[in-house]
Design a protein that fits this description.
The chain is an all-alpha fold. It is 68% helix and 0% strand. It is built from 20 helices and no strands. Helix 4 packs across helix 5 and helix 6 runs parallel beside helix 8. It is a multi-pass membrane protein. Its main location: endoplasmic reticulum.
Length: 410
């Protein structure tokens, strides 16, 4: 009798994990993603509130700001200006006669979306801006899982989502920045590209290109995609209708990549208004210079580290990045995602001047998180998530919190 009781106890203990595994497998994928997303927001919100509790008065907030005030600092104020007053018809000038920082550096979709919802609901700017960012971040997490499940097993795909949700810059997903909306649109665009649904890309690309600068990079990715599909057409048929659609959306993306530049030129009467505005943000580092493609990274490296160490480091980073793109884990992500990553990397190398906001500009590389999600070791995954959370705190301290005259903008 005792033996039978002991056996039943052993069976009960061993069946519990089995029951949990069965229940987990029966849980819808979207519910798993939702759980990961909500947990990540709890962790990140706690970190943000801790930092806000010690934040001193600054150009955006008073001492110890509430969450919404703290979440709408930095570029969030520019988006608020756009939502309330639009864009200037005349470009402001600094004391030397050069174009100063102004709203034309920020694209209209995010602030106009928030403004529209404010008009409908009566909710003020700060909570509505945060709500839009969080909602779009959640949408990105759902779409990202659907993207990753095409190239990874379900467990790895979910862990890739976890890496996205807990990533070092994931606090930005719940701040008044356009990144959440842009990443949602980008994920949708990449998913449509992987599914060869070219016609649906037109509206997505149109909105995406006016949310964050991306049209030219995505046009390059689409162009390379067309070349690749044509090269392997015997193995993967590339019908004429698909070819025409893919080529058309590539051209359309290129046009949309220039649309905001032209809009600024028409509104201000200055063809160079957008590029001069963008250059105003790097003037405190290297002074007022013309934009020469593929020079900003070397200019920045020379400013930060001096010559020849800085330029040598840039070359080493380029070589390391190219090598990383050909590792088995990255190749497993498929051609389309790798083409986007390569195209966006080339775009950044051509036009962006690296400073503390470089980490934010790296966020569109997030498909590469799928490569980090491949190992199945529990210890590896737990440690990687802990590192991500630690880096969140580091980024918040360095780039978001304001300490005197801060020169590390997010």
């Amino acid at each position: 009798m005792a033996h039978g009781t002991a056996a039943r106890r052993r069976t009960g203990r061993s069946s519990l994990p089995v029951a949990l595994r069965v229940r987990y497998r029966l849980t819808p994928w979207w519910l798993r993603v939702t759980a990961v997303f909500l947990l990540s927001r709890v962790v990140t919100t706690i970190l943000v509130l801790i930092l806000a509790s010690v934040q001193k008065a600054n150009p955006w907030t008073a001492d110890h700001p509430d969450y919404f005030s703290f979440a709408t600092m930095w570029d969030g104020r520019w988006y608020q200006i756009i939502a309330g007053w639009g864009y200037p018809n005349e470009l402001p000038l600094d004391a030397t006669g050069h174009v100063a920082e102004n709203a034309w550096a920020f694209m209209p979709v995010y602030p106009m979306l928030v403004r529209g919802l404010m008009e409908i609901t009566g909710v003020p700017w700060a909570p509505m801006a945060v709500f839009v960012s969080v909602a779009c971040a959640f949408g990105t997490a759902l779409l990202f899982y659907r993207m990753m499940i095409r190239v990874l097993p379900a467990g790895s795909a979910l862990f890739a989502v976890a890496l996205f949700c807990f990533a070092p810059l994931s606090p930005l997903l719940q701040f008044a920045y356009a990144e959440s909306l842009y990443l949602m649109l980008l994920t949708l665009a990449l998913l449509l590209l992987m599914e060869r649904r070219y016609a649906l890309l037109f509206p997505v690309v149109a909105v995406m290109a006016l949310t964050r600068p991306s049209g030219l990079a995505f046009a390059l990715a689409l162009g390379l995609h067309v070349i690749y599909r044509f090269a392997v057409r015997r193995r993967e048929p590339f019908p004429l209708k698909e070819r025409v659609l893919a080529e058309s959306v590539a051209v359309f993306s290129g046009v949309m990549g220039l649309a905001w530049l032209l809009a600024a030129a028409v509104a201000t009467g200055d063809l160079m208004s957008y590029t001069d505005t963008e250059l105003a943000w790097r003037a405190p580092y290297i002074g007022h210079r013309e934009l020469l493609p593929f020079t900003p990274w070397f200019q920045s490296a020379d400013w930060w580290l001096g010559s020849p160490r800085g330029p040598i480091l840039v070359v080493l980073l380029i070589v390391a990045f190219v090598a990383f793109m050909f590792t088995p884990a990255v190749k497993r992500l498929g051609v389309d995602l790798r083409l986007w990553v390569a195209s966006y990397a080339l775009y950044l190398l051509a036009v962006f001047f690296p400073q503390s906001s470089v980490f934010r500009l790296l966020m569109p590389f997030f498909p590469l998180l799928g490569a980090l999600a491949v190992p199945r070791s529990r210890i590896y995954r737990v440690l990687l998530l802990l590192v991500c959370v630690a880096l969140q705190w580091g980024w918040l301290l360095i780039a978001w919190g304001v300490d005197g005259r801060d020169w590390t903008p997010p």
